[in-house]
Amino acid sequence: MAKRTKCIEKRIALLNATLHLVNNNGFHDAPMSKIAKMADVSPATIYIYFENKQDLINKLYLETKASFSKYAFKDYLTSLSVETGFELIWRNIAYFKLNQVEEANFLSQCDNISTMVDEKSRQEGLKNLQPLLDLWERGQKEGIIKPISPYLLYAYAIYPLAFLMKMQHRNDFELSEDNLTEAFESAWNAIKI
Question: What CATH number did the domain enclosing 44 receive?
Fold first, then answer.
C-alpha cells in the first residue's frame, strides 16, 4: 500500500471516529485520546492532520456540509420552476437525512450547539446552501415565496425534517413515500404565498 493511501486512510479514520464519538457521546465527551483509539492511531498522529480538536471538528463539519450540499443539489438546475426546484432540493435533503444518518445527526448537532463549530467555519458552511437561498430569493422576486428571512424559510420548510427523522429513528413514525409527499406539501405551504 502506498504511503499516500495510508495517510488518506488515517485522516478518514480520524474523521469517522470523531463523527461517531460526537454523535454518540457529544462534543465534550469525545476527547482526542478516544478519537485516536477508535481510529486505531496514536494520539500524536491526530496532530499531523489537524491543529487541535477545534480544527478537527471544523474540518469534519465543512467536509460533511460539502457532502450534504452535493447530495442536496444533485440534478438541480436553475432553469426549474421555483416549486419544482424546491421540491427536488427538499427531497434530496430528506433522502440525505434518511440515508446518511450519522452525517445528518452531526450537522444537526453543529447547528444546535453554538460552540461546536467556530464562526468562520459556520459562515463557510452556509455558502453550501447558496443554491437554495438563490432559489428562495428568486421565488420572492416572482411573488411565489413569502418575503421573510431565509432563516425563517429554513426553519419552517427544512428543519422539520430533522424532527421527522428523529421520530423515525425512535420507531414512532415511518417516513414512507406518502408521508414524505405530505411533509413536502406542508413545507411548501409554509413558505409559499
Answer: 1.10.10.60
Q: How many CB atoms lie under 10 A from the CB of residue 18?
A: 25
- In sequence order, what are the residues at sequence separation of 6 or more whose Cβ sits closer than 8 angstroms to the Cβ of residue 39? 10, 13, 14, 16, 17
Residue with cell 428543519: 159
Amino acid identity, residue 20? H
pLDDT 10s per residue in the chain (193 long)?
555 556 889 999 999 999 999 999 988 889 999 999 999 999 999 999 999 999 999 999 999 999 999 999 999 999 999 999 999 999 999 999 999 999 999 998 888 776 789 989 988 988 999 999 999 999 999 999 999 999 999 999 999 998 898 888 889 998 899 999 999 999 999 999 9
Instruction: Specify the amino acid at residue 107.
Output: L
Alpha helix positions (H), 26-100: 32-39, 43-49, 53-72, 82-99
Residues 89 and 170 in one domain: yes
C-alpha 122/C-alpha 117 separation (Å) is 6
Q: How many domains does the chain have?
A: 2
Q: What residue numbers bound the domain in which 98 lies?
A: 64-191
Q: Are 69 and 128 in contact (CB under 8 A)?
A: yes
Residue 85's contacts (CB-CB under 8 Å, 6 or more residues apart) are 76, 77, 78, 135
